[in-house]
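For this section, I looked closely at the sequence of one protein beside the tokens encoding its backbone, which the following lines show:
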Amino acid sequence: MPVILVDYRRGSHELLAPLSKIGLPVEETTLEFGDLLFTGRGEHGAPVTVAIEHKKLSDLVGSLRTGRLQDRQATGMQTFDYRWLLIEGELLYGKDGKLLRRRGRRGFALMSGGMTIGELLNRLFVLQLMVGLTPLFARQRRDTLKLIEALYRVWTDTDLDKHKSHIAIHQPTTIRPVSNFRRAVLMWPGIGLQMSRAAERYFRGSVMTAAAADVEEWKQIATVDDDGEIRRFGRIRAEKLVTFLRGETTPCQTKNRNRQPT
């Protein structure tokens, strides 16, 4: 497995032990540019250099303000084939857009440098477009380790041109056609989609059997809702349905029909 070279200086040096703990091969060294460097597998297995510049968010703002990142570090990173800027820290900002840092458990203070979130993102996107330094955000140290591990696996597990996760053929969910049984009973009072499915199972797909069933049979047919609760058709709905199927009228309907206009 290709070794990840980790710069010995403070900051990047802190990554050495935790990266080793999660099973990545690491070695302490001196890097002129970048904080981590390893050899990946390019197209057809050709070796490529993969570099990561790791910065805490507050340090990033300071290096952007002084121009150190743009003038020396970003330029030096261009000597590598692929390069990332891994930014560690919470991206917090106020209503005015000014970047904030935590102060205590609930307090916040302005981050040194007086930079807004808009200015920060603008600068990072320009660095990506002009010098190929792709930003990655990690909220905390464990996120940093996961991102480094993911980049390492992507570049060392297989050749660049053999990756396939970006290739797919969209297969939209097929809408299953409603059976003739369900199409028929859905026209009956009190029968919805779930109940039509339950009735189809109960009457084994026979519309004639369902139409001839009595109240006692219909009332016990049950469905299961999203919470896992069993809901039965019930006697009241069963009586209305059977009355409808028999072509009969309810007492209320009979009374209304017999009422003479005044």
The CA atoms of residues 20 and 26 lie 6 Å apart. The chain has eleven helices and eleven strands.
